[in-house]
């Protein structure tokens, strides 16, 4: 059975966690991007909805570009090491995504860097795991 195989179960768990990392921010990020910076109740960046949509799509774009490079890297670096380092990279991306108590400032550039790095780290997680999942089936 699919779930009784520990290798496939951990691959499935990694994929589920990656999708949570990639999709959790969409409902809460748009109000933060669109709200006025002068609003004391809920300060934001004051972007238009169109500009906010481009920023929200940034991880998907970096994921699509990074998948090409990750497929080449899997030939030279072990898949387990790629997944391990990519989860660490994901932590850095989520810290940059903010708002964080570690950084006293909250900037749009830092948020975009975090979102771009999030897309790259998701590619480094999913691309090595998908062949493992297919091998079990």
How would you describe what is shown here?
This protein is mostly helical and 137 residues long. The protein has one domain. 72% of the residues lie in helices and 0% in strands. It has six helices and no strands. Helix 1 packs antiparallel against helix 6. It is elongated, with a radius of gyration of 17 Å.
Overall domain count: 1
Q: How many distinct beta strands?
A: 0
Poorly predicted runs are none
Query: Shape, please?
Result: elongated
Tally the helices: 6
Short description:
This protein has helices spanning 6-23, 26-34, 49-56, 58-73, 79-97, 108-136.
Question: How are the secondary structure elements laid out?
Answer:
Blueprint: H1 6-23, H2 26-34, H3 49-56, H4 58-73, H5 79-97, H6 108-136
Helix pairs in contact: 1-6, 2-3, 4-6, 5-6
Keywords summarizing the entry:
about 140 residues; mainly alpha; 6 helices
């Amino acid at each position: 059975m699919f779930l009784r195989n520990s290798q496939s179960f951990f691959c499935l768990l990694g994929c589920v966690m990656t999708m949570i990392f990639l999709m959790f921010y969409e409902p809460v990020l748009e109000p933060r991007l669109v709200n006025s910076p002068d609003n004391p109740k809920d300060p934001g960046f004051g972007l238009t909805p169109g500009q906010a949509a481009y920023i929200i799509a940034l991880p998907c774009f970096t994921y699509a570009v990074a998948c090409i490079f990750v497929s080449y890297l899997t030939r030279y670096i072990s898949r387990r090491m790629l997944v391990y380092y990519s989860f660490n990279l994901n932590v850095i991306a989520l810290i940059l995504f903010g708002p964080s108590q570690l950084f006293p400032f909250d900037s749009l550039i830092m948020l975009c860097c975090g979102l771009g790095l999030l897309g790259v780290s998701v590619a480094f997680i999913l691309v090595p795991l998908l062949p493992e999942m297919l091998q079990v089936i």
